[in-house]
Write a structure and sequence with these properties.
Layout (H helix, E strand, L loop, with lengths): L11 E5 L4 H12 L3 E5 L3 H11 L2 E2 L7 H12 L7 E4 L14 H29 L6 E6 L13 H21 L4 E8 L8 H5 L1 H5 L10 H12 L10 E4 L7
Parallel strand pairs: 1-2, 1-4, 2-3, 4-5, 5-6, 6-7
Helix pairs in contact: 1-8, 3-4, 4-5
């Protein structure tokens, strides 16, 4: 058996939303395993600062628009001719009462959380195909959420719908792209401290009390899951969503 099941040496990765939170956790984990990592974020200063701190390459872009996705693919293409790992992590949430939920909030969340992973993957597909082979497939990892599996009491209607949709979209994309030796999978995180999950960030003890594992997720938990899927260890995991939540969704 190979001794480098979890090594990412010699591989390139592009992570959207990579300047903070879960994206940063994954980027740092990939770098620790030897990958060359490009991170993208809408705010250029934050993207550049994180890149400098963890040893990544910054490619600022707004992937909420088709033009922004095209620009990111072109920017990456000026650095590399192929792509081994794409992590579709950029996302948005919106909280509002059922009777007053604004259309702009619905559209923003659904577009960034569902439309962007599909069209950005399509824009980068030529470079993923250029990297992929039967012996070393390229990887696409979509970052979903346990809110797409179980019901959160907060009124984040499009967020829950978008993450459930992304989980199923992962299966649909996987069915198509495996023919090109591109493995598509997803991660459904639970409570990790981030600007997206303010409760886990600011009220960690209270949130941990509701988690069967009695703690919120740590950087290593998210990095480890992503490294598994991105590396040789995850080559046969096609279309699946890996739940990383300390037991919330299933216990």
């Amino acid at each position: 058996m190979t001794t480098d099941l979890f090594s990412l040496a010699g591989r390139t990765a592009l992570i959207t939303g990579g300047s903070r939170g879960i994206g940063r956790m994954i980027a740092a984990g990939f770098i620790a395993q030897g990958a060359k990592v490009y991170i993208s974020a809408r705010k250029a200063p934050a993207c550049q600062q994180t890149a400098e701190e963890i040893g990544a390459v910054a490619l600022p872009a707004d992937v909420s628009t088709m033009d922004g996705m095209k620009a990111l693919a072109e920017a990456y293409g000026r650095h590399e001719s192929s792509l081994d790992i794409l992590v579709n992590n950029a996302g948005a949430a919106w909280l509002a009462p059922f009777d007053d939920f604004p259309e702009k909030g619905w559209d923003k969340v659904m577009d960034l959380n569902v439309k962007t992973p599909f069209y950005l993957t399509a824009a980068l597909a030529p470079m993923l195909r250029a990297s992929a082979s039967a012996d070393r497939p390229a990887k696409v990892i979509n970052i979903a959420s346990i809110d797409g599996i179980s019901v959160n009491p907060q009124e984040t209607y499009p967020y829950a719908a978008s993450k459930a949709g992304l989980i199923h979209l992962t299966r649909r994309m996987a069915k198509t792209l495996i023919a090109d030796n591109i493995v598509v999978s997803a991660i459904a995180p639970g409570a990790f401290a981030s600007d997206m999950n303010i409760a886990a960030r600011d009220e960690a003890e209270a949130v941990a009390a509701r988690v069967p594992a009695k703690r919120i997720g740590r950087d290593e938990d998210m990095a480890g899951a992503a490294i598994y899927l991105a590396s040789r260890a995850g080559d046969y995991v096609v279309g699946a969503t890996l739940t990383v939540d300390g037991g919330v969704a299933y216990c």
